[in-house]
Amino acid sequence: MKAKLATFIQQQWTRTGVWHLLLIPLSWLFAALSNLRRLAYQYSLFPSFRLPVPVIVVGNISVGGTGKTPLVIWLVKQLQAAGFHPLIVSRGYAAYADVVDIRQVQPGSDPAIVGDEPLLMAQRTQVPVWIGRERAKVAQAALVNSPECNVIVSDDGLQHYALQRDIEIAVVDAARLFGNRRLLPAGPLREPVARLSEVDAVVMNGANGHEAGFYMQLVSHQLYNLKSPASTCALKVFEGQAVHAVAGIGNPQRFFTQLKSAGLEVIEHPFPDHHAFEASQLAFGDDVPVIMTEKDAVKCAAFAQPNWWVMPVEAELSPAFLPHVLSKLGV
């Protein structure tokens, strides 16, 4: 039911109908309050914090998945290859994360406590990952614990102005773009589209070199078995077969489309973003293989079945993107 409601809302955000007349005044109020809040930070009416190392914020201006987490993972690995010692800060998305102000995420942490995306980033990057409600305080604590780190990457937080930043990267879904271009709740935007003119880089997820200056593609080279991760296979092994596709991400349709384009017969099972899975929800009553996203897999590993497969994705960025970021860091 939640997934259907989320899909319905996203569909309504692609157009402007009669019922939007009730929401547009609320969007104006949201815009006014957001602008006043940003000005309060700009003119030091609200405190903001400058850290002793560069801060890179990877975020977006819209609600829903745009591909921030794969980009963060890619960026952290590239920074490591360039000689940096990065750490990641994130809000975390879990009920317990609202209670615990600051916590380090370990590769074996409980996703119900630390959130699915922070856990995935910790597992994929092997760098310090810290979560908490106030990113500036989280980053300060992380630097005390890991003084060797010399650059911070913030997963999301474009609108978290309490943390001063050196580089802003905004990710845009090239397929959905900005919907009806209205702010919440009449549309999907957290900030106006004009905000993108102020960031250091806009990355179009799903675009190519002919459509955008900086573009990103999410690619998958092979699947791995969730119960026995050492067992891998190519996606084409399932070509022409029916599979249960499970996705509790911001844009499940992107995942389903990717499987369909590979020739699979997809039985779609969309769930709300950050959904806390239970084994019974994935008991489909047949022997049809299950394929899920890596973000969902970290929450399902404890009750994995032998025919459950995971499709990890890797971000591929336009060649000019990394030199652009490194130049901003003075490299």
From TrEMBL:
Pfam families given in the database record: LpxK (PF02606)
Keyword annotations from UniProtKB, A to Z: ATP-binding, Kinase, Lipid A biosynthesis, Lipid biosynthesis, Lipid metabolism, Membrane, Nucleotide-binding, Transferase, Transmembrane, Transmembrane helix
GO molecular function: ATP binding; lipid-A 4'-kinase activity
Example of a GO cellular component annotation carried by this entry: plasma membrane
Primary enzyme class: transferase
Name the UniProt record assigns to this protein: Tetraacyldisaccharide 4'-kinase
Database matches in PANTHER family: TETRAACYLDISACCHARIDE 4'-KINASE, TETRAACYLDISACCHARIDE 4'-KINASE, MITOCHONDRIAL-RELATED
Native organism: Methylovorus glucosotrophus (strain SIP3-4)
Pathway(s) where this gene product acts: Glycolipid biosynthesis; lipid IV(A) biosynthesis; lipid IV(A) from (3R)-3-hydroxytetradecanoyl-[acyl-carrier-protein] and UDP-N-acetyl-alpha-D-glucosamine: step 6/6
Gene name of the encoded protein: lpxK
Swiss-Prot/TrEMBL GO biological process terms: lipid A biosynthetic process; lipopolysaccharide core region biosynthetic process
Membrane-spanning parts: 17-36
